[in-house]
Amino acid sequence: MPKRVAITGLGAVTPIGLNVKDTWENALLGKSGIRKIDPTWSEGLSAKIAGTIEIDTAEFLGKVQARRMDRSSQLGVIAVKQAWNDAQIQFLEKERLGVFFRNWNWRTFNSFRTV
Fold it and tell me: Which pLDDT score is estimated for 7?
């Protein structure tokens, strides 16, 4: 028997917006998040353009927590926090609530699960 899943909140941290509202509005306007990469950052890379995200993750996560994660995990956790806030969940029954977050990039694979 399949289990039911409810998506109750959304979060997004993207090159065209640091939240769902801005990302959606910029997508509808046809804005691109692709731009030239800073040459000091891209030294040794063949790519000269990318969809970079300009955000100070420590501002959202705190310095200690941000230092403990790679960049893609930081961005994912910020998006999860946005989704949690968007869901406006007013209760916490540990038996009925879970958060699962996973990211994978060319350097790392991380999975976070909390119940």
Answer: 72
When divided into structural domains, the chain yields a total of 1
Q: Collapse the DSSP code of 68 into the 3-class scheme (helix H, G, I; strand E, B; otherwise coil) and give the result.
A: coil
Tokens of 15: 């090159």
Q: Are 86 and 23 in contact (CB under 8 A)?
A: no
CA–CA distance, 44 with 108 (Å, rounded to integer): 19
Which amino acid is located at 27 in the chain?
A
Q: What is the mean pLDDT of the chain?
A: 83
**Residue 3 falls inside a structural domain:** no
Are 12 and 19 spatial neighbours (Cβ–Cβ below 8 Å)? yes
pTM (two decimals):
0.76
Quote helix, strand, coil % in the chain, to nearest 5. Answer: 30, 15, 55
Buried b (16+ CB within 10 A) or exposed e, 1-25: eeeeeeeebebbbbbbbbbbeebee
Give the structural domain span for 52.
20-114
CB 82 within 8 A of CB 99: no
